[in-house]
Amino acid sequence: MFDLSSISGSVTSAVLRLDNPSSGGNSGTYRAWSFEGNVNSLLAGTGGTAAYADLGSGTEFASTFLSGSTGTKVISLNGAALSAIAGASGLFVIGGSFTGGALFGNTHLGNPDTLLVLNVEPVTPVPAPGAILLIGMGLVGLGYRQRVK
């Protein structure tokens, strides 16, 4: 779960970084999924088995082979994930599934070693129509003044 409330601008790419601080775990295919359920019930722990199942299904955001070796695993998220991130306001949840059994010895989504890294195109301020009109009137006034001289 990630708080995106402070993000402004267009997200151009996103990666999920999982850190495996200890050796161990299995190799297999990791898939990242959308979460369609109620975020508040997930936070409160009242979502039950439906919330758990939802974390491992939905729209696929990524699919990649991971080894159980020590180190950071970087998983690029696809266009569906970018669209979901663009539509998110506040908390954004990514679920996951792994075909190889236990992914890492002691790493799971939601711990401090899990990061969602976003590349964001900054918002370019657009001049207000009144400012453009004011600049235009100033230029007309300067032109008129030069003409009168």
How would you describe this protein?
- The chain is α+β, with helices and mostly antiparallel strands.
- It has one domain (2-148).
- It is 28% helix and 32% strand.
- The chain has 4 helices and 8 strands; from the N terminus they run βββααββαβββα.
- The strands form 3 sheets. It has a 3-stranded antiparallel β-sheet, with helices on one face. A 3-stranded antiparallel β-sheet has the order 4-3-7.
- Residues 106-110 have low confidence and may be disordered.
Strands side by side in the biggest sheet: 5-2-8
Number of helices, where a helix is a run of at least 4 consecutive DSSP H or I residues: 4
Gap between N and C termini, in Å? 68 Å
Low-confidence stretches: 106-110
Number of domains: 1
Task: Give the helix level as a range of percent.
Answer: 25-40%
The secondary-structure class comes to alpha+beta
Order of helices and strands: EEEHHEEHEEEH
Gyration radius over CA: 24 Å
Strand content: 25-35%
